[in-house]
């Protein structure tokens, strides 16, 4: 017998029929003798619809009331799922975040879970009742409803799994696992059986959208394996049909490169003719940090005259306008002559724990892109990833050629 947290995303509960289908998956786990906590998202499109209502009342609406409104999407699904389980003759009840005691901080629209009072829920689950918990929401010290940020249903699921020390957290979604690259662009992409927490954390933060990044962080800290699997196949979780995200040492063989991620969320900024002297970088990035603007990739150009230099870096597209404002205000202090920006860029990243022990991975990446005539604009690396920024038009070509170069292509015969 295992203790499982099973989470269904929006497409998996998009209408009453799908909710019944998801309930059948839960019933199958119960038949196998497992104890189950179910976490649900809002029906597909509902969160966006509710956010639209809020914006229609006022673009500058109260973020606290926004949370009160958008949290209701998950409440609907939780009640319907409990009914669907009851319809199958199972004992089930729904729980909203505040009823469980999911305590968060007060940062509305992106709250963080502080702790979860699991005792009440656990006692009933141990007694054979299925708990159906509304994802994405909690309550704060002011007794107000909070939400955890887009995709936050994953955070609820993993945080509950960590709190109840579940054996596994199954995330049912509309894809059947984590792929070596996005199959929409790379048709030879393959489903991975295993991914380590570290790799998944990089992949999620570098653009893979399947799991919410913070949920992976929580799983890694609590050492709860996550399985990503599709709601639409016939398998149930305990057969491991999906991808298991787990500790590195539980993974037997691993390739040097595990997967490729891409993100079109960044924009490039180039400052030309900055003074080439100590303190320039601090002067550029200090004011951006003070304005709470995250800078990701950075490259400082070589200076040809010893007096001036160029600085190229990326920020999130949604923060580009603000970044330009900040930099223009500082122009006199920074002394640059030109500020250029480019939104038509994509960040391509290779991730793999095998990079720790293999030299030459980055150079193979650069050579592969050079052979295709793809210009690399900015580079950044960490212990288990290399990211490059290239023109958006080359995205598919870059992904496909790297996928082949690192031996990730699906066997043609398979
Ligand atoms: N319903 C929320 C969203 O659409 C949370 C989730 O589905 O994970 O972002
Ligand atoms: Mg999701």
Outline type? globular
* N- and C-termini, Cα separation: 35 Å
So how many helices?
Answer: 14
* DSSP strand tally: 20
Determine the fraction of residues in helical runs and give it as a percent range.
Answer: 25-40%
Task: Give the bound compounds.
Answer: aspartic acid, magnesium ion
What is the radius of gyration?
Answer: 23 Å
| Structure class | alpha/beta
Flag low-confidence runs.
none
Regarding quaternary structure, how should these chains be classified? single chain
> How does the major sheet shape up?
8 strands, mixed
Strand content: 25-35%
Query: Strand order across the biggest sheet?
Result: 3-6-2-1-9-11-12-10
Overall pLDDT metric: 94
Topology:
Layout: E1 3-8, H1 16-31, E2 35-40, H2 46-57, H3 63-70, H4 72-87, E3 92-95, H5 97-100, E4 102-104, E5 113-116, H6 119-126, E6 130-134, E7 137-139, E8 145-147, H7 153-163, E9 168-173, E10 194-196, H8 197-205, H9 213-222, E11 226-230, E12 243-246, E13 259-263, E14 266-275, H10 280-290, E15 295-300, E16 308-316, H11 320-329, H12 331-334, E17 338-342, E18 345-351, H13 361-371, E19 378-382, E20 385-391, H14 395-405
Parallel strand pairs: 1-2, 1-9, 2-6, 3-6, 9-11, 10-12
Antiparallel strand pairs: 4-5, 7-8, 11-12, 13-18, 14-16, 14-17, 15-16, 18-20, 19-20
This protein binds aspartic acid and magnesium ion (MG).
